[in-house]
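Methods, example record. To illustrate the input and output format used throughout this study, we show the complete record for Holliday junction branch migration complex subunit RuvA. The sequence lines were provided to the predictor; the line carrying structure tokens was produced by it.
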Amino acid sequence: MIAFVSGRVAAVTLSSAVLEVGGVGLELMCTPGTLATLRTGHAATLPTSMVVREDSLTLFGFADEDEKQTFELLQTASGVGPKLAQAMLAVLSPDDLRLAIAGDDTKTLTKVPGIGQKGAQRVILELKDRIGAPTGGRTSSAPAAVAPWRDQVHQGLVGLGWSAKDAEKAVEAVAPDAGGTPDVAALLRAALRTLSKA
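The corresponding predicted structure is encoded as:
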């Protein structure tokens, strides 16, 4: 197996990068986030994962070792191949994925093209005990991934007949009270109080 590739960046396309290693150009399939860090003509070292199929050998390149390990772990879930695993990492960082899986947050996982409600539930069920806790690495600013309680309170208010706009304002109003481990029921009650005052 090829653990990493180190060389000069010869080309960067929309979905891959070519690194020149010892006079040979190796094409690595990468997420947009990884590609954004590469500059043509500059040296780069990318951890890699090789996927062997009957008709192809595909090399996937990653920004760091954490992303590579997450990519390989995602593929152990049934129905998740290398392309879907890469799509998941293109939309969500490894820590965002850990938070979504640990928090049973199917809504965040279904933001990934190719993952429906059932697929998201299967990924959560199969990986929850193995994906581990967030490492404190880079995360996106998607509030749904960071705070699943927001969606739960929002859906609760909409279910009770409030408009999505009013529900969003109420969620923002109670956000400072959320703390480390938010009590969704208490936050929902607080949000209802802010709406009844308005």
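Annotations derived from this record:
The first strand starts at residue 4 and ends at 12.
Confidence is low (pLDDT under 50) at residues 139-146.
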